[in-house]
Hints:
Elements: H1 4-26, H2 28-31, E1 37-38, E2 41-42, H3 43-66
Antiparallel strand pairs: 1-2
Helix pairs in contact: 1-3
Amino acid sequence: xxxxxxxxxxxxxxxxxxxxxxxxxxxxxxxxxxxxxxxxxxxxxxxxxxxxxxxxxxxxxxxxxxxxxxxxxxxxxxxxxxxx
Length: 84
């Protein structure tokens, strides 16, 4: 049962990483105002633009957490020789 705990924790962490940008961007009344302004740009625009690298980092984290979760080792792979 111990090997399932890290796998389950990785999946829960991946789900939270995927849900965070969705929750942050779908709750429009929280960031729908024009104030404060950053370099003359209303908060509404720079908040959404700030999520672009945030979403990229979240997707990178999910990829790193789940990239080996479904791969099973092939027992005969070590003994095969490369083709000509």
